[in-house]
Amino acid sequence: MVIIMTALLVLALLGTVWGFLRQAHIFMAGKTQAKVEAPMSTAAAIVTLAPGARIVSATSEAGKLVLHVDTASGGEVEIIDLATGKLTGQVKTQKP
Questions:
Q1: What angle do CA 34, 40, 26 make, to 5 degrees?
Q2: pTM of the predicted model, to two decimals?
Q3: What are the 10-residue block averages of pLDDT along the chain, 96 residues in total?
Q4: What are phi and psi of 57, to 5 degrees?
Q5: Distance of CA 5 to the CA centre of its chain
Q6: What string of H, E and C letters represents the secondary structure of 26-69?
Q7: Dist. CA 74–CA 54, nearest whole Å
Q8: DSSP 8-state secondary structure symbol assigned to residue 87
């Protein structure tokens, strides 16, 4: 009985060490893969606003970024495709 219990204890310890080494390998592979996939300096889109303009709100739906912008001449809504970063639509309103 003592020999069987000792063998089971040794197998449990070996399984624990193997599990820790496996998780460490997975963790290190994920860290190096994350560095290669997404550089932090790239932007999805670059929006240039007129002087004095400000973004009132921004929402994202179905891969599109919708910006509500308030300018001196009125308001505007800009729709930007997040996949390409290009302006796909724009609606301008004038102040009365």
A1: 10
A2: 0.51
A3: 94 96 85 53 71 88 88 87 84 80
A4: -155, 160
A5: 50
A6: HHHHHHHHHHHHCCCCCCCCCCCCCCCCEEEEEEEECCEEEEEE
A7: 11
A8: E
